[in-house]
Design goal:
The protein is 30% helix and 15% strand. With 261 residues, the chain is α/β, with parallel strands linked by helices. It has a 7-stranded parallel sheet, with helices on both faces. It has a 3-stranded antiparallel sheet with strand order 4-8-7. Helix 1 (12-26) crosses helix 2. The longest helix has 15 residues, at 12-26. It is globular, with a radius of gyration of 17 Å. The structure holds 2-amino-2-deoxy-6-O-phosphono-alpha-D-glucopyranose.
Length: 261
């Protein structure tokens, strides 16, 4: 796990975009995994800026979302597909038809989950997966207690997550759907490269458990310790509970120019 602690939050965008862009440089048809939430927004802004300047093209990429609320109409502004379209896809040269998310409106949700797994597999798997982390250590919507081998399925959101996400629903936790479809921890662990962004003091405890705690379903993000290629991008507040922070800083400062993410 490469832990990158950036002193300047402005650097989160370029560093995260570099991590994604290296895959597209190697393979213009790279399969991207996209995350919602505020954490990856700077990365998305930077990717969009590079596309605008003609430095990067995602036109031949395909993308898969991590998760989706159950029951929100497709045109609801907070459905995750709508969020990703607004925050990222509309600003790229990537056609929205190349972006797929779990079908939270499907009549048969279990079949929709199985179809989603199949679609990812048929695309050849995800090359680079962006991730954020919940204050309770969830990744995608894999809440504490999630099987670390889980696949895409329906989950019930915790009261904490609904409180955290209420800011997108007029401040009312009751307006946040109770259920979601989410890639499982096992699904996420199959992506080739995981790029996690965590910012702010509220994430410090979860980041500590993810990077330095015991691997446990109580902190689903700790499963990232089992993946051979993970980049964790943090600001100083999110990194404030890391015991080995000095070492991570030294390793990043001494990283050879030739070494990619
Ligand atoms: C939601 C998403 C997660 C995201 C988390 C943190 O629960 N399902 O994928 O990581 O929010 O969001 P934020 O980055 O806004 O703190």
């Amino acid at each position: 796990m490469e832990v990158v602690i950036l002193d300047d939050a402005e650097r989160v965008g370029p560093v995260g975009a570099d991590a994604v862009a290296q895959h597209v440089r190697r393979n213009p048809e790279a399969v991207l995994g996209l995350a919602t939430g505020s954490s990856p927004l700077r990365v998305y802004q930077e990717l969009a800026a590079r596309v605008r300047r003609g430095e990067l093209s995602l036109a031949r990429c395909r993308a898969f979302l991590l998760d989706e609320y159950v029951g929100l109409p497709a045109d609801h502004p907070e459905s995750y597909h709508a969020v990703i379209r607004r925050e990222l896809v509309d600003r790229l040269d990537l056609d929205d038809s190349r972006v797929l998310g779990p079908a939270g409106l499907a009549e048969d949700l279990a079949a929709a989950c199985a179809d989603y797994e199949l679609a990812i597999a048929e695309a050849g798997g995800i090359d680079v997966q962006l991730l954020g982390i919940g204050t309770d250590g969830h990744i995608a919507f894999n809440e504490p207690g999630s099987s670390l081998a889980s696949r895409t399925r329906i989950k019930t959101l915790t009261a904490q997550t609904r409180r955290d996400n209420a800011r997108f629903f007029g401040g009312d936790p009751e307006a946040v759907p109770h259920h979601c479809l989410t890639q499982g921890v096992g699904t996420i662990l199959q992506a080739g490269h995981l790029v996690m962004v965590a910012l702010g003091q509220a994430k410090a405890e979860a980041v500590h458990h993810m990077v330095e705690g015991a691997v446990s379903a109580m902190w689903p993000a700790s499963a990232l310790q089992m993946h051979p290629h993970v980049t964790v991008i943090l600001d100083p507040a999110a990194a404030s509970r890391l015991q080995l922070a000095d070492y991570y800083r030294e390793a990043w400062a001494a990283k050879p120019d030739w070494q990619e993410f």
